[in-house]
Known about the structure:
Elements: H1 10-25, H2 35-48, H3 54-72, H4 81-102, H5 108-125, H6 136-140, H7 149-171, H8 179-197, E1 202-214, H9 230-239, E2 250-252, E3 258-260, H10 267-279, E4 282-292, E5 295-303, E6 309-314, H11 330-335, E7 346-347, E8 355-357, E9 362-365, H12 374-382, E10 388-392, H13 401-417, E11 421-425, E12 430-433, E13 439-443, E14 449-459, H14 463-467, H15 470-482
Parallel strand pairs: 1-2, 2-4, 3-4, 5-7, 9-10, 10-11
Antiparallel strand pairs: 1-14, 4-5, 5-6, 8-9, 11-12, 12-13
Amino acid sequence: xxxxxxxxxxxxxxxxxxxxxxxxxxxxxxxxxxxxxxxxxxxxxxxxxxxxxxxxxxxxxxxxxxxxxxxxxxxxxxxxxxxxxxxxxxxxxxxxxxxxxxxxxxxxxxxxxxxxxxxxxxxxxxxxxxxxxxxxxxxxxxxxxxxxxxxxxxxxxxxxxxxxxxxxxxxxxxxxxxxxxxxxxxxxxxxxxxxxxxxxxxxxxxxxxxxxxxxxxxxxxxxxxxxxxxxxxxxxxxxxxxxxxxxxxxxxxxxxxxxxxxxxxxxxxxxxxxxxxxxxxxxxxxxxxxxxxxxxxxxxxxxxxxxxxxxxxxxxxxxxxxxxxxxxxxxxxxxxxxxxxxxxxxxxxxxxxxxxxxxxxxxxxxxxxxxxxxxxxxxxxxxxxxxxxxxxxxxxxxxxxxxxxxxxxxxxxxxxxxxxxxxxxxxxxxxxxxxxxxxxxxxxxxxxxxxxxxxxxxxxxxxxxxxxxxxxxxxxxxxxxxxxxxxxxxxxxxx
Length: 495
């Protein structure tokens, strides 16, 4: 590629930065045109070559990031329009800063992908624990390219997409030798093949027969506007279609379908016990209970056919401004008229590893939002989980942007952990995903339906499960340092 007359005007450069960001946005589910993730980033890198000064470098990176993330996270608009703009502007600023920093290094073909990957690393963890949504790995999740996540998780997959885009720009830039580009491209291919071949995870030859129950119902319904019993009744009705002849081991219900003061003394507990006894199967149910006057718990609980409650996992990663208001902000937000009355109480954060104990085996579990954090799933696998469960409640969200991104995310979690992954949603999508990230069964949004599947148990841990994110982050930062500060030359921005 060479800079064209289209990029000679500053306004044109900003317009094309906007187009590049929207291109990346449309690579994400539910649109899912995944090649656009690479082409959009390549267009962005081409524009950055001709930025005139530091202010413009920041602005181009900002516009690119804003267009990408504003489209990819547009579901937030229906929950909180002010929060949507704050998040989009904040994270766009990360990419503006990344572009400003990367321009200060030699070898921009490598410095830019690293800097923007580190901007995403920051977004994955800050503020309030991070918002790892609308990410590049989610875009490539339906493809074999995402297999690289079994080596380096979402961070390495992010760099892979960005580096591929930079190599594309460099390859078509005739002012530079193509030899180093070809070498790096070959290394990327080798790394990708290595991720597919080297797999220390294997089946135990045992299976669990699991029923995933989706009750269906409307979307865009906030908990404060719904009856606590409605979701329970819908899921109970679907569960009653199961028969003892199904020979089930486990029945999985989604997140917080049961909303009571105290589960063990509730009518819902006795109804669940009766169904568990009828089917002679363990029930893994999502329960919201009162902790005290202004707090509640969000847990997944195992109920045995004899009524015993034998295992419990409390959600650790809570949704900021969804399940809790960060400390010190509630009174401030109330003073400026923010609708914090929609979050009248705060969830209590759990402390345990992400795991539940069943009669046959231990299973990893991440509740709803936690699926977007690779470390939570890995916590359960480190503790011995042989499959991965993701009970979730997406009924608060309008449309399918978040739901389809969560499904793609669980495809990544399956690869990263080497585990069969089950997503159980109240209104969709419920699904079964293989350790290779393939979705084998799925229930559509709004459907009331059950999935019954024999799920193989697996053991062993992937390379990523052992490495985690820290090693990849250190390697990226070290590599950026090796790019060396830039010398002021007229071609300093060439890729």
